[in-house]
């Protein structure tokens, strides 16, 4: 009986301890769900004179965004909570910073379903980071289909505090991504730099009736009745489908790299500057067939990222600001920025 009581006491102790740690982990975090929508491009009249004057209306479905997420990230001094409720549409450039406002554990998990001008996108950004006095660890999965980039990244760095505002860091980064740099169409390019699209189309299952000049899809559907439509409409679709399929067939690639970075943060009510940067100068060549080294002539390359947040109030009325972040990985770039001026009339 005493063993049962001991086990029960131990179980309760572990449960209470786990609940305490769980509560501490999620304390001050915000879970949010939000949806927004607006009209897209106005309806357009499309005219045709092939068989007399014909008019059709081209419509674009409304734009929308649906966001689901949870975040626990301390706000910097220059960040104000403008809305009563957090809706996930706010721009938080500082989320990309290497070092947060406070030491300890922070995280962001957000998924976005977006439609813009008739095109739909699914974006994800999940990261956890731990900032200590002398080291930093961060793990992130980013999928930005607007920029056509997707990768997982883990980093472990030592941190040296030069002043209470400026620190440098260095360590290792591991990335997993599709084989960026791989071009499925390279083998189909002729010496004249043209592409042998007819042979590729036949390989993909398309057929052509040389007597009538008609072109058929792999399932037998008539897709073009002349060469002009075939080359202008069907061939580009076929090439896009082929490239996407070939890219999806290849395994993800590991990339081990060195990273060197810095972080600077200064804030007063009238002037603030937050800047960070990361440089990846060396990448381990593991000899894989689809490693980025193969597509970069077996040479090293430079990947980097950074951000800048600046604000200055000249007086009670006039102020200027600049915010933005920039990424360049595997010769692919994505960025956003915001710049402006405020003038308050008293």
Largest sheet: 12 strands, antiparallel
Tally of structural domains: 2
Helicity, as a percent range: 10-25%
CATH topology of the largest domain: Porin
Measured by DSSP, the beta-strand proportion falls in over 45%
How far the N terminus sits from the C terminus, by CA atoms, comes to 78 Å
Regarding CATH, which class of the largest domain?
Answer: Mainly Beta
Order of helices and strands: HEEEEEEEEEHEEEHEEHEEE
Sum up the overall morphology in one term. globular
Low-confidence stretches: 1-16
Total helix count?
4
Strand line-up of the largest beta sheet? 1-4-5-6-7-8-9-13-14-15-16-17
The average pLDDT score comes to 85
CATH architecture of the largest domain: Beta Barrel
Could you walk me through the main structural features you see in this protein, from its secondary elements to its overall organization?
- The chain is of the alpha+beta class.
- It folds into two domains: 73-181 and 251-343, Porin (Beta Barrel), CATH 2.40.160; 186-249, no CATH class.
- The chain has helices at residues 2-26, 197-203, 227-249, 292-295, and strands at 30-38, 44-48, 54-58, 63-72, 104-116, 119-131, 135-144, 149-161, 166-177, 207-209, 214-216, 222-224, 253-267, 271-280, 303-313, 318-329, 332-343.
- A twelve-stranded antiparallel beta sheet has the order 1-4-5-6-7-8-9-13-14-15-16-17, with no helix packed on it.
- The radius of gyration is 27 Å and the shape is globular.
- The model is unreliable at 1-16 (pLDDT under 50).
């Amino acid at each position: 009986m005493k063993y049962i009581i001991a086990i029960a006491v131990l179980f309760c102790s572990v449960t209470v301890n786990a609940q305490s740690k769980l509560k501490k982990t999620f304390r001050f975090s915000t879970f949010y769900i939000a949806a927004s929508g607006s009209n897209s491009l106005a309806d357009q009249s499309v005219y045709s004179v092939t068989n007399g004057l014909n008019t059709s209306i081209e419509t674009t479905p409304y734009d929308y965004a649906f966001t689901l997420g949870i975040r626990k990230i301390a706000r910097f001094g220059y960040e104000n909570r403008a809305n009563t409720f957090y809706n996930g549409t706010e721009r938080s450039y500082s989320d990309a910073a290497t070092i947060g406002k406070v030491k300890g554990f922070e995280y962001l998990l957000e998924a976005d379903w977006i439609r813009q001008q008739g095109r739909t996108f699914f974006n994800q950004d999940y990261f956890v980071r731990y900032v200590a006095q002398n080291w930093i660890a961060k793990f992130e999965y980013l999928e930005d289909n607007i920029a056509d980039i997707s990768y997982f990244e883990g980093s472990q760095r030592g941190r040296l505090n030069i002043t209470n505002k400026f620190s440098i860091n260095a360590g290792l980064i591991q990335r997993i991504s599709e084989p960026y740099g791989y071009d499925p169409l390279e083998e189909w390019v002729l010496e004249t730099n043209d592409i042998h699209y007819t042979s590729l189309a036949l390989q993909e299952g398309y057929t052509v009736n040389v007597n009538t000049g008609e072109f058929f899809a792999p399932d037998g559907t008539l897709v073009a009745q002349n060469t002009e439509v075939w080359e202008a409409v069907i061939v580009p679709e076929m090439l896009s489908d082929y490239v996407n399929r070939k890219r999806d067939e290849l395994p993800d690639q590991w990339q081990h790299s060195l990273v060197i970075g810095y972080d600077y943060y200064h804030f007063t009510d009238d002037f603030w500057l937050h800047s960070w940067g990361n440089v990846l100068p060396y990448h381990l060549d593991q000899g894989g067939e689809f490693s980025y080294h193969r597509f970069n002539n077996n040479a090293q390359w430079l990947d980097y990222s950074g951000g800048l947040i600046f604000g200055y109030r000249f007086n009670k009325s006039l102020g200027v600001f600049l915010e933005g972040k920039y990424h360049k990985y595997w010769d692919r770039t994505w960025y956003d920025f915001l710049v402006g001026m405020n003038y308050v009339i008293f």
